[in-house]
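quick one, 124 residues, struct below
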Amino acid sequence: QVRLTESGGGSVQAGGSLRLSCGVSAYRYSINCLGWMRQVPGKQREGVAVINRSGGKAYYVDSVKGRFTISEDKANNTLYLQMDNLKPEDTATYSCGADRGVYCYAPRPNFEYRGQGTHVSVSA
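---
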């Protein structure tokens, strides 16, 4: 069973920073791709970033490039999303995802497994 648990959401003013964490429990599952998604009520879920565990390379949606950093602490089974220079349009519920598939070269809105999400609110 794969279990993903997010934390670290909250409210911040524009220009501020937050770091999201995702605890990954995937005993005996070979997870190749980890990532973050976000969703605003009434809109489709959007892929934000992924990290390919095979090579460690990360990929981002254009709107967050240069501001967000995805990383993984394999020793502690934790995925992170460092968000800097936040903007009001980053307000959303952020969730982490995990996938056994080999394709992990672009952010995407769907994964095999997904957490419940944590809310981020950015005020102007």
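DSSP finds no helices and eleven strands in the chain.
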